[in-house]
Structure formats: C-alpha cells, structure tokens
Amino acid sequence: MSKERTLSIIKPDGVEKGVIGKVIGRFEEEGLKPVAIRMARLSQAEAEGFYAVHKARPFFKDLVSFMTSGPVVLMVLEGENAVAKNREVMGATDPAKAAPNTLRKLHASNIEKNTVHGSDSADNAKVEIAYFFPETAISAYEWKR
Ligand code: RTP
Ligand code: MG
Questions:
Q1: Which residues pair with 5 in a beta bridge?
Q2: Is 107 a catalytic residue?
Q3: C-beta 46 within 6 A of ligand 1
Q4: Of 131, 13, 18, nearest in space to 76 by CA
Q5: 42 to each of 11, 26, 52, 132, how far by Cα in Å?
Q6: What's the 79 CA to ligand 1 centre distance in angstroms?
Q7: Residues within 5 A (CB) of ion ligand 2
Q8: What are the structural domain ranges in the chain?
Q9: Cα-to-centroid distance, 25 and ligand 2 (Å)
Q10: What is the pTM of this model?
C-alpha cells in the first residue's frame, strides 16, 4: 500500500442537493484526507478540457453543459490507494448499478447527474490534480485522531 492522491469533484447536482458535508465526511471516514479544496463554477472551456477524453462520446455536450450548470467542489484527496478507494466509495457511474451505501447509490439522480467525479488511474489523477491545483495550493498535514 502506498500513499496516493486523487482528484475528486462534487458535481453541480451534489452541491444543489446540499450534500457537500455528507460527501466530505464520508471521504474522511474512509481514510481519504482532503489536502486541497476549492469551490468553482467551471467555464465551458475548463469543462471541455477536463473531459477531453470523452470528446467523441455522444454524451459529451450534455456532460459539459451539466458540469457548467452550477458550482462544483474541487478537491484533492490523499490516502492509501486513494484512486481505487475513491472509486470504490463513489460506486458505479450509473447509480442504478452502484453498490449499496456508495455515494452514487445514496445521492445520485442518474448516470449523468451522479454527484461525484473521481480520477480513474494514478496517472490521470496527477494530470487532473494539476489541471485545477498548483502544487502550492496542496496542504501537507497529518491527521491526529
Ligand atoms: P467520472 O469521470 O465523472 O468520475 O465518472 P466515471 O469515470 O464513473 O464515468 P465516465 O465514463 O468517465 O463518464 C464521465 C461522466 O460522464 C457522464 N456520463 N453520462 N449519459 C450517459 O450515458 C453518460 N455516461 C457518462 C457521467 O456524469 C459520468 O460520470
Ligand atoms: Mg471517468
């Protein structure tokens, strides 16, 4: 096991539903420590750039329009196997297929408005973190608990 970082986003539906605290609390309970947090309203260019890998997908236009529809919470989470752990806590993309008690099962509306984003590999996590946070915005600290 090794300490790793991943990028998490609470999507506009999660902010709108008022579950920011619940989502961050769950990450903390699961050993994922927030080391950077900022709220933002993504521009179209930022959302298109972030999801560029999905550019050719039929849902790309809707996804960009959803991700720019309201504020999001951008976070860097740190912990043992943070990338995989975050994906596990989020659950499947489609909440109908997500395991019980995952964030998407608990809070998501549908396959698009699915409350949270998490990087899908350690390499992508590095790129996604750098997309939103300069290294100086990431705080080093230890949990005392
Ligand atoms: P994410 O990147 O947001 O963490 O989600 P993911 O890895 O579980 O899913 P991915 O395949 O990367 O898709 C990115 C986001 O696009 C929206 N989506 N809509 N309408 C559709 O069929 C569809 N499929 C995907 C979702 O918001 C998904 O999280
Ligand atoms: Mg993805």
A1: 78
A2: no
A3: no
A4: 131
A5: 10, 24, 14, 10
A6: 23
A7: 120
A8: 4-134
A9: 22
A10: 0.97
